[in-house]
Amino acid sequence: MNEGKKLRSIDQGTSGGIWGLENGFCIMVGGEQELVKRLEPAFLTLAPKDGYVHCGPVGSGHFVKMVHNGIEYGMMQAYAEGFEIMRAKQEFNFNMHAIASAWRYGSAVRSWLLDLTEAALREDPDLASLKGYVEDSGEGRWTIQQAIDLNVPAPVITLSLFERFHSRQPESFAAKVLTAMRKGFGGHAVKKAE
Known about the structure:
It is built from eight helices and three strands; from the N terminus they run βαβαβαααααα. It is mainly α. A three-stranded mixed sheet has the order 1-2-3, with helices on both faces.
């Protein structure tokens, strides 16, 4: 760097996953207005129509992307719970793939996440080939930490992250503690370990 020159930067969050080239993606940019305007032709060329936003100062693009992923955690959890409720209603013998497919057209809950669910259920109707172990990549944690730091309640995003933790336990010690307490105070029946 030459003496007296100042390094200026922008940040860019991108969403669209591994299918972004095929299905589109959005670009969330943070940086000084003048610098972003100079680079904007590249963003407008790369992003699909209306898929680019200048979010604010440096750091804001990745902040918006982080919150986006926190929202995604909550949406994914809601889909997962809804499909599990339907699956548990065994007397109706629901065709999960057919329901996911129908919801994709005109439903208030249609989304790319639902498209991905429909495709998975088409390929494997019982999802028997998958283990119900859900990782997190950090953005949900960071979103929750920001919510705490900013005194903003975020119960859906928080619970969806904790459900991911729950998915990683082969058996819950907390559930055993709850069982022991219920048996102790009310004489409730318990299931014994095998």
